[in-house]
């Protein structure tokens, strides 16, 4: 297990467009193995090459956080030279990033995407994702173009504020039977409400 240093917002590497991978070398395979370890150690669901200082177009994603079975939950996608081939609909997503520690942001994303890319064996795959999974792939893909979610977020707050509001909402909804709720989005509504009442 080898952990790599995670590049933090402010480093110009994160703002640059990455170059295509010309050949899948052992160095790239080794970087991917280290990136899995680094992502897991940091409790992330995705990590892109520039986040470990490599200016090449590849990323890893582990988007099935809510899957029932462990095998699906643990699945890591390696996407080399990825391309988003289709986008449909819109969604608002709450996002964090290993390169922007301590913050959460509200971002507009497509609801559904198709994305193709090559794995470490050089085999091309095309996948379709929606909801949270689509968000993870769009977020990681953006890193390859030098875009951080914080560059495009409509709203941001600290992780402390986020968990505080989450806690408040949980107390507010304690006893409610409906499991649906509006989930994460209610947090951003609540934040706006608080800002209004503080003015
Ligand atoms: Zn990120």
List the helices and strands and how they pair.
Blueprint: H1 26-41, E1 46-48, E2 58-61, H2 70-73, E3 77-88, E4 91-95, E5 103-109, E6 112-118, E7 124-130, H3 131-144, H4 149-152, E8 155-158, H5 159-173, H6 184-198
Antiparallel strand pairs: 1-2, 2-3, 3-6, 4-5, 5-8, 6-7
Care to describe what's here?
- The protein has 2 domains: 12-152, Peptide Deformylase, CATH 3.90.45; 158-197, no CATH class.
- A hairpin with a 7-residue loop joins strand 4 (91-95) and strand 5.
- Helices cover 34% and strands 25% of the residues.
- It has a 5-stranded antiparallel beta sheet, sandwiched between helices.
- It has 199 residues and is of the alpha+beta class.
Strand content: 15-25%
Q: Helical amount among residues, as a percent range?
A: 25-40%
- Order of strands, main sheet, comes to 1-2-3-6-7
Series of secondary-structure elements, N-terminal to C-terminal: HEEHEEEEEHHEHH
User: Treating each run of at least 4 consecutive H or I residues as one helix, how many helices?
Assistant: 6
Integer count of domains = 2
Q: End-to-end span in angstroms? A: 50 Å
The CATH topology of the largest domain: Peptide Deformylase
Mean pLDDT: 94
Low-confidence region ranges: none
Oligomerization state:
single chain
- Number of strand segments: 8
């Amino acid at each position: 297990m080898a952990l790599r240093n995670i590049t933090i917002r402010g480093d110009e590497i994160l703002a640059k467009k990455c170059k295509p991978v010309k050949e899948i070398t052992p160095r790239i395979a080794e970087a991917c193995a280290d990136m899995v370890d680094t992502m897991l150690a940091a409790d992330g669901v995705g990590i892109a090459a520039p986040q470990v200082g490599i200016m090449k177009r590849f990323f890893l994603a582990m988007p099935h956080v809510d899957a029932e079975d462990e095998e699906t939950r643990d699945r890591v996608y390696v996407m080399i030279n990825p391309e988003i081939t289709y986008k449909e609909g819109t969604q608002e997503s709450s996002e964090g990033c290993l390169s922007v520690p301590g913050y959460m942001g509200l971002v507009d994303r497509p609801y559904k995407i198709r994305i193709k890319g090559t794995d470490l064996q050089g085999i091309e795959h095309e996948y379709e994702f929606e909801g949270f999974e689509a968000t993870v792939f769009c977020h990681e893909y953006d890193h390859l173009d030098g875009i951080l979610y914080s560059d495009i977020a409509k709203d941001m707050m600290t992780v402390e504020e986020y968990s505080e509001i989450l806690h408040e909402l949980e107390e507010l909804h304690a006893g409610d039977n409906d499991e649906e709720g509006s989930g994460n989005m209610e947090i951003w509504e609540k934040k706006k409400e608080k800002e209004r009442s503080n003015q």
